[in-house]
Amino acid sequence: MSKRVFIIVPSTIVARGLEQIFHDLGEFEVGGILSDLSGSGVVQLRNMDPDVVIVDPSIFDHSSRGNARVTLAEYTSAAVLAIVGSLWDEESLKQYDGVLSLYDVPTTVIRKVRAALEGHGDAPRSEGEELSAREKEILVCVAKGMLNKEIADQENISIYTVITHRKNITRKTGIKTVAGLTVYALLNNLIDINTIE
Amino acid sequence: MKMGTSTERRLLSPSMKMADLMNLRFSLLGVLTRMGIPFGFGDETVEEICHRHGADPDTFLLICSVYAFDGYIPTKERLEKADLKEVLRYLRLSHAYYMDVALKELATALENLIEPCGENQKRIIWKFFSEYKDELAKHFEYEEKTVFPHAEAVLRKGSDRTFTIGEYEENHSNVEEKLEDLKNLVMKYMPAVCDQQDIFKALFYVFSLETDLEKHTVVENDILVPIVNRLENHE
Fold first, then answer.
1. What's A100's DSSP letter?
2. Can you tell me the distance from the alpha carbon of B88 to that of B69, in angstroms, rounded to the nearest whole number?
3. Which B-chain residues 115-134 have CB contacts (< 8 A) with chain A?
4. Pick the CATH number of B7-79 from 1.10.357, 3.30.460, 1.10.3910, 1.10.3470
5. What's the pTM?
6. What is the distance in angstroms between the CA of the first residue and the CA of the last residue of chain A?
7. Is a pLDDT exceeding 80 seen at residue B223?
8. Could you say which of A174, A177, A183 has the minimum Cβ distance to residue B124?
9. In the CATH scheme, what architecture does the domain A133-195 have?
10. A84-100 pLDDT, tens per residue?
11. Strand order in the sheet with A3-8
12. Assuming Cys at both sites, which of A95, A126, B18, B48 could form a disulfide with A168, CB separation 3.0 to 4.6 Å?
């Protein structure tokens, strides 16, 4: 099955161009295109659960640009590549899993996307139905009411790893809400009630 | 009344026997009782019974269609025939039913179920259920204080336009998620001390509330909203 790409760029020409490249070379298919990250777009991104996101960093305003990757991680656990046309602040590009240039030839685009997916191995694709020890640790943090950012800092992992763990926990337990996960953690003796009240 | 020709009209028509309609699906009985139509209707038709009890047969059948057929989307023609006042009356009576009957039954079942559990377990499960109940009540309150009065104002052509039905964010998602969580918690993770029949009973009430609320949402989104929308545009 081909991997799904989600494109977030303000330029229709760039979006169509990328779509054409992926179409011509197979392996990846474009599942959605947005011009920015507003309102319903976010919902679309979340629902599609793509493997790869390609984003033009200019959709983020100057103050939020440095946190772009973290912002996206709230909606998706996909590998994220930036696409830039001209000189761009090198430091702010480091947060991405890869960087595409408007001048990349199609094969380079594919190669970079593949590399980004591999490098994204950080994201735990947890199989099986029992919660792993790691997932239980994250669950306990969630049950205590900690935010993703706090969990990431405490466990020394990236915020998108936290989100992937949370997704896996919900998939395995069938429990979606924080309140529900707290009940789950208590019924399974993962936490002591005194730590949450 | 002249009958339409579509399949759906043939299937649910005012001239069919009420008993045949009710036999289509169990959940239709809920619609019937909430509309205040008593049992004991013998072999009378839907139309006869509705008229006797002051209910509009077209609206009644429209709501019944939602409950009887999954994925049912009302046609424009049927929406135009429906009586908005009757739709609102049904929605309000449904809210009262969920709060005063369905949730109380579920609460009792849940109370019995967690009886043998440890104090902490009892407390946290009960807290979860209470939060769900409060959220649902808050949601209903918003509809009854903001959405329904607006619909009535539009009907009287007296809407002050500070609110339009387009702003009615049908945001049931969080309440739905909580109920689903409750279902999974009860089904999958109750301690071994719990009685199997008690688990079954609690699940029975959770499932029936869940199914009923799903249909309730369809009535709001696919009947109430389009009717008010049309009236707003004609104002």
1. E
2. 21
3. 120-121, 123-125, 128, 131
4. 1.10.3910
5. 0.71
6. 46
7. yes
8. A183
9. Orthogonal Bundle (1.10)
10. 987 778 888 888 989 99
11. A28-34, A3-8, A52-55, A79-84, A98-101
12. A126
Contact in structure between A54 and A100 (CB atoms under 8 Å): yes
**Euclidean distance between CA atoms A18 and A24, whole angstroms:** 10
Interface membership of B195 toward A (CB under 8 Å): no
* Beta partners for residue A8, in sequence order: A34, A55
Pairing of strands A79-84, A28-34: unpaired
Query: Does residue A64 have a pLDDT over 50?
Result: yes
Q: Determine whether the interchain pair B178/A177 forms a contact, defined as Cβ–Cβ distance below 8 Å.
A: yes
Helix, strand, coil percentages for chain A (3-state, nearest 5): 55, 15, 35
Query: What average pLDDT does range B15-24 have in this prediction?
Result: 95
pLDDT > 90? residue B233: no
Q: Three-state SS string across B206-228, please?
A: HHHHHHHHHHHHHHHHHHHHHHH
Nearest to B189 among A182, A187, A193 (CB): A187
Residue B91 neighbours by CB under 8 Å, 6+ apart: B143, B148, B216, B219, B220, B224
Residue numbers in A near B116 (CB within 8 A) = none
Whole-number Cα distances in Å, B177 to A105, A122, A178, B208, B232: 45, 29, 10, 15, 32
pLDDT at A124 over 60: no
Residue A122, both tokens: 């950080």
Quote the CA–CA distance of B52 and A116 in Å, as a whole number: 70
Mutate to test the interface with B, among A130, A183, A194 (most CBs of B within 10 A): A183
**Is the CA virtual torsion A137, A177, A165, A149 positive or negative?**
negative
Mean pLDDT of the residues in chain B: 90
pLDDT of B1 > 60? The answer is no
pLDDT at B5 over 50: no
Secondary structure (H, E, C), A3-32: EEEEEECCCHHHHHHHHHHHHHHCCEEEEE
Quickly list DSSP for B168-192.
-----HHHHHHHHHHHHHHHH---T
Domain residue limits, chain A: 3-122, 133-195
pLDDT digits (tens, 9 = 90+) for B84-120: 999 999 999 999 999 999 999 999 999 999 999 999 9
Map tokens 């730590």 to a residue: A195
Q: Which 8-state DSSP code applies to residue A99?
A: E
Task: Give the CATH fold of the A3-122 domain.
Answer: Rossmann fold (3.40.50)
